């Protein structure tokens, strides 16, 4: 369970030490309408261009855009690309750069030509020297990295195999981090995962993982099995395998596995998606989020990134909309009348492999205790359905004079909460029929209930789901509020 606002606030105070290969990313956009008369190649009529900080620098940008701070250590040449990179970096107030210069190598630069009409990459041109840094430069990098640990909450190594993260730089960085008790996230490039020995989390994509482990990696079970050997070899606590539209699978050294599905999104550009996942994970773990929360945040952040063109950043408000996609809907769009059709919603969410949660109540006068339960319930799932007793049901349960507000008013107040994705009104005294229909993965009630008292717990647990009890806020009761309003003593 997590409170999005609370974790966003926690993230804003964290500093990530990011070490890796810095690049200048340039995107040239235009129309392609003819073939060159000189050769069988398309001609792009360039209309505009954009310059971004790329490679490991993109991870730094995302850390900053999400509200964190980043200390970035990298390598540049002494050329025009380096000057342009420094000018762009100087505009990033939340990124502090410690850059080592090597006049013997060019600053890595990538230029992508993109068709506006088709939203596809036509060509990429690279300027780079993808060789390990020399011994002298290697030592300068180590000397630049080590003094930064005192100000960092977590370390992110972003390896693009362009020369910064040599075996010696990696070893010195991870050993220093472990000595100081700081976690290390690695976005790897080397297929020899043992080179990152001692990291907290290693994050290969499925192709990299399959090649590194010589496994098929074609299912969660196959990934989990291959990851155990890889984690022993790399002496890491966890391994996250990203699988594009198939989501992400985290294998833990203690044998646990967590799979998080990819969120539905129209893919515009996958550039930088891996950087986004790594940056979001670093911030979330620095903020003491658990694995499940960190993964869900990373999945949502990646969905934001690939929905944009170029190596895009992620703002907190964009992340919030991905985590709480129904927050912007009108209240009436989130209400299903008694006997209404919720099957379409359920089918859509299940097709996306989303975790559906359920809670219920009369919610006659919404108070802070209700809000706490609803917020906690939404934190335990991807979509939250609230079962709401109809007026007739409330009257049978609470007696004459109740409810104070009719079911439509109560439903609209609930639907206005961003934690709530759907309000389903039911006529019966208990929501057992609704729970049977929904088959939620998570059933949430206030802590004034025991597990055995929660209606529907047998149904949910028999299907592999869980019952979550949330501590209630003392002193908050609808009945006492109604009594006080009517001049009672409660």
From TrEMBL:
CDD domains: RfaE_like (cd01172). The keyword Repeat does not apply. Gene3D superfamilies: 3.40.1190.20, HUPs. It is an enzyme of class 2 (transferase). One of its GO terms (cellular component) is cytosol. Pathway: Nucleotide-sugar biosynthesis; ADP-L-glycero-beta-D-manno-heptose biosynthesis; ADP-L-glycero-beta-D-manno-heptose from D-glycero-beta-D-manno-heptose 7-phosphate: step 1/4; Nucleotide-sugar biosynthesis; ADP-L-glycero-beta-D-manno-heptose biosynthesis; ADP-L-glycero-beta-D-manno-heptose from D-glycero-beta-D-manno-heptose 7-phosphate: step 3/4. It comes from the Bacteria. Residues 358-452 form the Cytidyltransferase-like domain. Keywords: ATP-binding, Carbohydrate metabolism, Kinase, Multifunctional enzyme, Nucleotide-binding, Nucleotidyltransferase, Transferase. The active site is at residue 275. GO terms for biological process: ADP-L-glycero-beta-D-manno-heptose biosynthetic process. InterPro entries: Bifunc_HldE, Cyt_trans-like, PfkB_dom, RfaE_dom_I, RfaE_dom_II, Ribokinase-like, Rossmann-like_a/b/a_fold. Homodimer. In the N-terminal section; belongs to the carbohydrate kinase PfkB family. In the C-terminal section; belongs to the cytidylyltransferase family. Catalyzes the ADP transfer from ATP to D-glycero-beta-D-manno-heptose 1-phosphate, yielding ADP-D-glycero-beta-D-manno-heptose. This is Bifunctional protein HldE.
């Amino acid at each position: 369970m997590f409170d999005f606002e609370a974790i966003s606030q926690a993230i804003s105070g964290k500093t990530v030490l990011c070490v890796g290969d810095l690049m200048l990313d340039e995107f040239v956009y235009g129309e392609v309408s003819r073939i060159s008369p000189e050769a069988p190649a398309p001609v792009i009529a360039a209309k505009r261009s954009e310059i971004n900080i790329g490679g490991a620098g993109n991870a730094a940008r995302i850390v900053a855009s999400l509200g964190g701070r980043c200390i970035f250590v990298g390598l540049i040449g002494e050329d025009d690309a380096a000057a342009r990179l420094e000018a762009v970096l100087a505009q990033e107030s939340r990124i502090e750069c410690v850059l080592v210069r090597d006049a013997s190598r060019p600053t890595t630069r990538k230029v992508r030509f993109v068709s506006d009409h088709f939203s596809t990459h036509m060509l990429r041109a690279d300027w780079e020297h993808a060789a390990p840094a020399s011994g002298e430069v290697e030592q300068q990098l180590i000397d630049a990295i080590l003094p930064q640990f005192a100000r960092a909450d977590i370390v992110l190594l972003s390896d693009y195999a362009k020369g910064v993260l040599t075996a010696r730089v990696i070893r010195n960085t991870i050993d220093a981090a472990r000595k100081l008790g700081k976690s290390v996230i690695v976005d790897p490039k080397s297929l020899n995962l043992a080179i990152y020995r001692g990291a907290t989390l290693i994050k290969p994509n499925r192709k990299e993982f399959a090649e590194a482990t010589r496994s098929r990696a074609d299912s969660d079970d196959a990934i989990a099995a291959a990851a155990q050997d890889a984690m022993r070899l790399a002496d890491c606590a966890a391994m996250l395998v990203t699988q594009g539209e198939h989501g992400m699978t985290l294998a833990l050294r203690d044998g646990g596995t967590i799979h998080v599905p990819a969120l539905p999104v129209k893919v515009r550009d996958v550039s930088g998606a891996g950087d986004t996942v790594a940056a979001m994970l670093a911030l979330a773990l620095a903020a003491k989020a658990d694995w499940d929360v960190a993964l869900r945040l990373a999945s949502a952040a990646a969905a934001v990134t690939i929905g944009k063109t170029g190596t895009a950043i992620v703002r907190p408000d964009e992340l919030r909309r991905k985590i709480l996609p129904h927050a912007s809907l009108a209240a009436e769009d989130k209400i299903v009348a008694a006997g209404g059709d919720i099957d379409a919603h359920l089918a859509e969410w299940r097709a996306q492999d989303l975790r559906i949660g359920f809670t219920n109540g009369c919610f006659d006068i919404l108070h802070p205790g209700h809000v706490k339960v609803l917020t906690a319930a939404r934190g335990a799932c991807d979509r939250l359905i609230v079962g709401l007793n109809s007026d007739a049901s409330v009257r049978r349960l609470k007696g004459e004079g109740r409810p104070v507000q009719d079911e439509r008013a109560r439903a609209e107040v609930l639907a206005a909460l961003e934690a709530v994705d759907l309000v389903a009104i039911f006529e019966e005294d208990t929501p057992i029929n609704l729970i049977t229909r929904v088959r939620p993965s998570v059933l949430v009630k206030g802590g004034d209930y025991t597990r055995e008292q929660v209606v529907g717990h047998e149904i949910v647990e028999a299907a592999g789901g869980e019952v979550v009890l949330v501590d209630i806020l003392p002193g908050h009761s609808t009945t006492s509020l109604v009594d006080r309003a009517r001049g009672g003593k409660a």
